[in-house]
Amino acid sequence: MAIVISSMTLLMPHVALAQSSAISSGLNWITSVQAPAGNWGSDVTATDSVQATSAVLESLASINETTNQNYVNAVTWLSAQQLDTTRYVSDRLRIYTNASSDKDLILSYIDELSRVWG
């Protein structure tokens, strides 16, 4: 799901004057399958949900849908996830930038000696 959403994001024009019916339909579907906690993805593993949620947030940001409650709930959920893996750190950094959230927490995980995560 995350790959499809990411691919759709790359194919969409960055500036859309009017929302097409296909985009509206997609927005309706994506918001209807969002988990009550605010994430998208698998209920089994948090990393799948982190990746899927990041992809959806990037897609919503690309079409300027960052003020709706679904976006806010997803950013809140993503911010609450533990950084026990570096696999999706770059995704989260992009989301924090898009959400105008504080990136200090995620940047604090950088190893000061080597200047890398992990």
Brief characterization of the structure:
With 118 residues, this protein is an all-alpha fold.
Topology:
Layout: H1 2-11, H2 21-32, H3 46-62, H4 69-80, H5 89-98, H6 104-107
Helix pairs in contact: 1-3, 3-4, 3-5
Key words describing this protein structure:
single chain; 118 residues; mainly alpha
Rg: 15 Å
Q: Which class best fits the helix and strand makeup?
A: mainly alpha
Helical segment tally? Answer: 6
Quantity of strands, as a count: 0
SSE order = HHHHHH
Unreliable stretches (pLDDT < 50, length at least 5) are: none
What is the domain total for the residues? 1
Most strands sheet: none
Helix content: 55-70%
Spatial separation of the terminal alpha carbons:
27 Å
The portion of residues forming beta strands comes to under 5%
Give average pLDDT, whole number: 75
Shape, please?
A: elongated
Task: Tell me about this structure.
This protein is mainly α and 118 residues long. The protein contains six helices and no strands. The mean pLDDT is 75. It is elongated and about 50 Å long. The chain has one domain (2-9, 18-107). It has helices at 2-11, 21-32, 46-62, 69-80, 89-98, 104-107.
